[in-house]
Amino acid sequence: MSMTDVDSDFLLAVSAKVRAGDADAYRQLFDALYGPLRRFAWSLVRDDAQAEDLVQEAFVRLWDRRASMDGDIPLRAWLYRTVRNLALNSRRDLATRTRLLDDPVSRDNPVVARPAPTPEDLTVDREINRQLSTLVQELPPRQREALLLSRVEGLSHAEVANTMGCAPRTVNNHLVAALSTLRRRLAELGTLVASLVGMLS
User: Fold this and answer.
1) This prediction's pTM
2) DSSP states of 107-176 as a string?
């Protein structure tokens, strides 16, 4: 199930049951969010096994702390924030964290995915991915993170704010700045990637 397939009403209902200790609801939440969370974790650590470990650890912490958690925090946002923090902690000895959000666009991204692509489509897709990935990499880290969580993972502004530890207005500012930069840079790159400009609105 992709992030866009996870219904908000479903999340509210199952989250309430998880907080009450319902193991079946916990499994439903795991099944619904494991894939998106693993993709998010991988974008941070670039390692399949570590990404799986981070998501599993986040779910273990959720179950262990379910009874004492702040009821105002959505569990989806809590899980994303926990995965993010675990990933950052695992990389804290590196000289910089700016590479954590490289290449958020993958072949699973519906922006570039097409059924039965032609060889020409594949060539264009590869070039678009390369160009867009480069542009996203050049964004300031907080703008990249807001863009990844909002436009790739599908979190609401409130959930992104909770994940990043900032106000929703700050998230909006990051997104406006990031999208403005990407539109301008994409337009500068010429006709090959100019079609992406409309997808960013």
Assistant:
1) 0.60
2) TT-TTT--SS--HHHHHHHHHHHHHHHHHHHTS-HHHHHHHIIIIIS---HHHHHHHHTS-HHHHHHHHH
